[in-house]
Design a protein that fits this description.
This protein has a seven-stranded mixed β-sheet, with helices on both faces. The chain starts with 7 loop residues before the first strand and ends in a 20-residue tail after the last helix. The chain folds into three domains: about 170 residues, 3-Layer(aba) Sandwich (Rossmann fold); about 250 residues, Orthogonal Bundle (N-(1-d-carboxylethyl)-l-norvaline Dehydrogenase, domain 2); about 30 residues, Single alpha-helices involved in coiled-coils or other helix-helix interfaces (Up-down Bundle), CATH 1.20.5.320. Helices cover about 55% and strands about 10% of the residues. The chain has about 475 residues and is an alpha/beta fold. The structure holds 6-phosphogluconic acid.
Length: about 475
Amino acid sequence: MNKDLFDFGMIGLGTMGRNLLLNMADHGFKAIGFDKDTSKGALLESSATPGTTVKGVNTLEEMIKLLQPPRKMMMLVPAGKPVDDVIQSLLPLLEKGDIIIDGGNSHYTDTLRRLDYLKESGIHFMGVGISGGEHGARTGPSIMPGGDPEAYKNVQPILEAVAAKVDGSACVAHLGKKAAGHYVKMVHNGIEYAIMQLISEVYDLLHNGLGLNNDELYKVFKSWNDGDQQSYLIEITRDIFLQKDDKTENRLVDMILDKAGAKGTGKWTSQDAMDIGIPITVIDTAVALRSLSAYKDERTQASLLYKTSTQSIEAPREVFIQQVSDALFFATIICYAQGLSMLHKASTELQMEIPMPEVVRIWRGGCIIRSSLLETFFKAYTANPELPNLLLNEEIAQLIQNKKQHTRAVVMHATQTGYPIAGLMSALSYFEAYRTERMPTNLIQAQRDYFGAHTYQRIDMPGTFHTEWESH
Ligand code: 6PG
């Protein structure tokens, strides 16, 4: 062990890479970072906490030479080709046993391909999801590693040191085989999209429907965050309402164009859920609504054509706010239930062996979807790690039962007054279908058999049947 060598290397010193590396240094690890842009290396060094060991270099060769073998390094570069390019540049410089971590939002199939590609070389490759944004990277993110458990053991002390802590336990755990880390992070992001969609709908109802101004919205969100809806997304939304615009006299939120961006993880979640046959309707809706938001010109035309005027919701203010709060709570549980049911299915379907109690344990802190609800989910999965759907847990069923009437009331008010609440509606409809013992799908089977002889099963005897339907 050479005391002059560094414990961990970071490739890509953007805000995330820099902050995570500084976080490692704050925990006593000797940290070295590479970026082609020399100003980023300089910024890394100048932002380091005094007394910590941090170095920025601008060639990969130098970084690799200065790392303690087996070399441990992470890349935080944009997903896609940049990740393959870094791997290509690293290969001639590395030795058997070295560990490369991809800490970005890579698609899990890319991670599978890279694992396969690097297998022969003896170099360990790990796909690791990291959540918490720039601030989280510096102060404690939630970290979702997957892949080779032996490689994980080598980096475990560093990841545990830098991760967020809840009740003294680090928000990091080995989350399964192969590309499990990136798969779990993708679904995390899908849930993130869905909850953000729900919050935006609730904002619309309270702001345009009930006429609450930003200060009043702040108070409502504050009371939710101080109560049973404590979560990171509610907390930042509360604060967003107070932010002043530095270019006008207005609040910033009122000056932001209503087109939502997306880097793709939400869409991947929907696509992959379809592939494994798991309904995640609120996530699908959230992805679709972000897409719809991009069609600003068409929406403007349509608003003129349909003479849309915002209608006020005629309901007693405090009563409606309580109903909206309950609807958001209800629908948020549905988002988690859908995303986690997808992970449960993927665990076996894609042979990832994802430990569900660990997933919810490490989402309790550091990540964007952290929420006090995660404690309840943790209890549910600890009691039954094979729970196929959170809605089947009795404690959660009780929460849902308590909120469902208010959710129905909000959906009714909103649809009567013409507010788009696709997320809330799809959460409610999913619930109504999920709790239905006999769905109307018998009719779909009849239709399929009618026009395509696709056959059907019967409720009263086993076997597969076809009927020569009489057309009238
Ligand atoms: C996180 C986030 C992060 C993601 C952003 C942007 O967990 O810290 O999920 O990884 O990049 O949320 O995602 P979109 O641009 O797709 O909204």
